[in-house]
Amino acid sequence: MDKVNIALTILSMVIIIGPLAGLAYVYRDNLVGLVVPPQIKSLVGGVDSVGTQSQPQFQTPQLVGQPQYNAQTGALTVSFNFTNPLTNEVSIDKLSAEVESEEGGVSLGHISINQPIQIAPGETSIINVSGILNQNAISQFEAQNPGVNGINISLANLNADVAGINVHMNQVNNVGQLQLPG
Amino acid sequence: MNKVGRSINWFGLSAGIITLIVLVISIYVPWWQLTIGQNLIKVNASPVNTNFGLFGAQFTIPLIWALNLISILTFTACGLVMLIYSLNPTKSYSKHLLVFSYKKPLYVLISFVAGLLAIVIIAGFLGMSIPLMGSATLTLPTQFISSGLSISALISGSFELPFYLAIVAAALCIAARIYHKNLGKIPKTAPETATLPTETPLTSVSG
Prior knowledge:
The complex is a heterodimer of chains A (182) and B (207). Chain A has 182 residues and is an alpha+beta fold. Chain A is 24% helix and 42% strand. Chain A has two domains: 2-45, no CATH class; 62-179, Sandwich (Immunoglobulin-like). In chain B, 53% of the residues lie in helices and 16% in strands. In chain B, strand 2 (41-45) and strand 3 (51-54) form a beta hairpin.
């Protein structure tokens, strides 16, 4: 039964060589394309061969305006602008940070989002991160810096959970200025 | 009238059927799945259909696609040849069919697991822990990101139904090969003993 054996051997060779030879022929002018698909290329390069941006590009949330501070209640709200570049919904489950004065690094309080935020595909959303500042810390800062009418703040230990990805930033500077009552 | 049943290698028959079932299911369900974050990055891996999900976009790598095609053809040929063999295990050409088909599911399975282990080991050298089964926290090595920033994500890996079915198919193929030796020992004179005259004492047949 050598014929059966020969036929099976030929079948094995065709099964293995056929697809590889076919692929090599199709990609003969672009051998790199065998292992690097256009999606990966555009992710690395940002744009594809025709110059259009084909992969979503994440951008870090941008601060929007000045922080809103109520000196009577100590309530502080810092707003961020975030665009979801994906084709599916993104959930921001956690966003929190410590508020510090840029001068002296005095800890003033803690801000966070109240509840998870869902951002639809392609949508830009304003994320308000708020909290109550420590009045004693504010008073202490005023005592240490007499005559100032505002506190330049920064954020420390910023933690965000975006779509299951945890991002930690040690410091975010130049967040804005809290206006102190004259 | 010949009352003796046609000899069939039942292990082989089962192996052939399950191999073809594995092939069909594997087109839709991966053998192994890796998810990072809330489906931000997804890897659906199987010898038959491997694809990647990156920020919601699905794609595959052409070379892997070709290897998948080889696996599809291998599984198809193996399953069909094993079925043909199983229904005619005592023919003169049957041994060739069995030898062609019984090892392939095992080779595909071993290659797949070896590939996964290689990926896990390479990721380990880069400082990333990828769980084959279960969940872990993946932290990007500091050399990939700017200072003062750290990025981590929940990463989970799991083997799916077709993987376990493939193990069963490979095991049945081996069993078919072992059982084939027994089929070879079936006496060819069996039909003659079945047509013995009824008055012949049973002891003379067995003795």
